[in-house]
């Protein structure tokens, strides 16, 4: 099959890690007989330096016209880069908000997987970490408290702040469908997280999710209150397969799930919209402190490319091949500096890419 991919190397370690992901995608092309066509665009600080804006309209059109977008990271050293003297809407990260909005991305997928080989990096107690876990947090990205009406007014001489949490049934239904589909591609278990004992928005959430469930009889659904979920992620993380939740709960839970893996350089992410077009990027930033040294961990970006194969191209077997190659390299004892431990072999960013490439 043939697909068009927009590549956004971006800033900092972005170009180094995207290069390694492309290397691995080449191995997938060769092994499975696919053809991936790449168009590279500038975004973030590098675009500001060239064009004065973090994302040009032309670059955006290129991304919109492709089958998927693979992004490294954008941004520089917030303390001393001239990019941060610009107004907020002209800074590197403004491009992230713009591209997500223009591509209509409403579902954010962040897997949190604890590899057996890296269980020592987890802050969880050893008997919990040793069991491992593999969950996917699906967070609604464009509604809820972060997008509702907000204001501060004076009532009876007291400053009073108001934030509103709004969801309509269509917004809930479209992400619930994505979550059931993702669960169908995994272990068939979906946990929908809400606060239905208190919030009306959660009661509607629960009702709509259960309606959608009727079309997915092969996926088992359970509901969990958000406070209980936050606890279960630390004491019983292997319970979870796909976790579906609204914007703010997802913001918090996805960071918590990432933290319990203990390895920022290992965590991919995907943002999906109505069709198949998605944006795939590592969960970490541009790491300007280690840029240009060939020491960054490219695995989060390589695993983001695997998510692209699975969710935008429906190439499940190929995605698995990439994930298995990553597991194999870890099992054989190769580590980049950020996940290095005693007795392992420390490798560079490009060598890690080569090793994974060779194991596809
Ligand atoms: P960061 O994730 O870039 O780095 C945090 C720490 O983790 C650093 O010590 C870094 O060296 C290390 N690290 C991150 N990724 C690594 C990797 N792949 N391999 C090895 N070590 C890695 O977060 P930060 O320092 O807070 O932000 C740096 C810049 O990135 C800022 O400009 C920020 O706005 C931007 N940022 C961009 C995105 C994005 O593009 N989606 C996301 C988050 C932050």
Which key features would you list for this structure?
single chain; 360 residues; alpha/beta; 2 domains; two-stranded antiparallel ribbon; 12 helices; globular
Question: What is the N-to-C order of secondary-structure elements (H for helix, E for strand)?
Answer: EHEHHEHEHEEEHEHEHEHEEHHEEH
Task: Please identify the structural class as seen in this structure.
Answer: alpha/beta
Report the CATH superfamily of the largest domain.
Isopropylmalate Dehydrogenase
Q: Can you tell me the overall shape?
A: globular
Named once each, the bound ligands are: nicotinamide-adenine-dinucleotide
* Poorly predicted ranges: none
CATH class of the largest domain: Alpha Beta
Our estimate of the beta-strand percent is 15-25%
In angstroms, what is the radius of gyration? 21 Å
Number of helices: 12
Major sheet: arrangement of strands:
2-1-3-12-11-4-5-10-8-9
Largest beta-sheet details: 10 strands, mixed
């Amino acid at each position: 099959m043939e697909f068009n991919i927009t590549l956004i190397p971006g800033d900092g370690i972005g170009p180094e890690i995207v290069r390694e992901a492309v290397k691995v995608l080449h191995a997938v092309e060769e092994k499975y007989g696919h053809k991936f066509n790449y168009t590279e665009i500038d975004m973030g600080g590098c675009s500001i330096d060239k064009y004065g804006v973090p994302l040009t309209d032309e670059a955006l059109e290129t991304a919109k016209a492709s089958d998927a977008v693979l992004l490294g990271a954008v941004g520089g050293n917030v303390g001393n880069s001239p990019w941060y003297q610009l107004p907020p809407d002209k800074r590197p990260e403004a491009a992230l908000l713009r591209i997500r909005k223009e591509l209509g991305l409403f579902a954010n997928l962040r897997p949190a997987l604890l590899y057996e080989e890296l269980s020592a990096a987890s802050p969880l107690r050893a008997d919990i970490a040793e069991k491992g876990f593999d969950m996917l947090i699906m967070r609604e990205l464009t509604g809820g408290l972060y997008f509702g009406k907000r204001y501060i007014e004076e009532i009876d001489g007291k400053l009073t702040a108001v934030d509103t949490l709004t969801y309509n049934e269509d917004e809930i239904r479209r992400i619930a469908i994505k979550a059931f589909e993702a669960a169908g591609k995994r272990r068939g278990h979906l946990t929908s997280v809400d606060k239905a004992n208190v919030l009306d928005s959660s009661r509607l959430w629960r009702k709509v999710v259960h309606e959608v469930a009727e079309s997915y009889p092969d996926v088992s659904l359970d509901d969990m209150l958000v406070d209980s979920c936050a606890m279960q992620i630390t004491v019983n993380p292997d319970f979870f397969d796909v976790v579906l939740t609204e914007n703010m709960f997802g913001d918090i839970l996805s960071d918590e799930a990432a933290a319990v893996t203990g390895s920022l350089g290992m965590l991919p992410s995907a943002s999906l919209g109505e069709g198949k077009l998605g944006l795939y990027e590592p969960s970490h930033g541009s790491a300007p402190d280690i840029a240009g040294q060939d020491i960054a961990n490219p695995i989060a970006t390589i695993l983001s490319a695997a998510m692209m194969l699975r969710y935008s191209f429906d190439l499940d077997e190929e995605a698995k091949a990439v994930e298995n190659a990553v597991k194999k390299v870890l099992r054989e004892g190769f580590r980049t500096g950020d996940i290095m431990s005693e007795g392992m072999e420390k490798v560079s960013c490009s060598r890690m890419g080569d090793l994974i490439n060779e194991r596809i």
